[in-house]
Design brief:
DUF6199 domain-containing protein, transmembrane, 69 residues, mainly alpha, membrane, DUF6199, transmembrane helix
């Protein structure tokens, strides 16, 4: 049952990385596949939006009571 509480916390942590450090999020997702590549502005905005959605999903899962105890 510990895993059910860990998943929303991971969503929140990874979402915070996406919001505050979008270049790291881009690199972990796509950037490692290329040499000397830089993310576009659209990629950084997308990383931040995805981070906000991940944080919202994590908070929702923690507070909604959907997950078993």
């Amino acid at each position: 049952m510990f895993m059910f509480k860990l998943l929303p916390v991971l969503f929140i942590i990874l979402g915070a990385v996406g919001v505050f450090f979008p270049r790291i999020s881009w690199y972990l997702g796509i950037g490692w596949q290329f040499k000397n590549a830089e993310p576009s502005t659209a990629a950084l905005v997308s990383a931040r939006i995805s981070g906000i959605l991940a944080i919202a999903a994590g908070v929702f899962l923690l507070t909604s009571g959907i997950l078993p105890n």
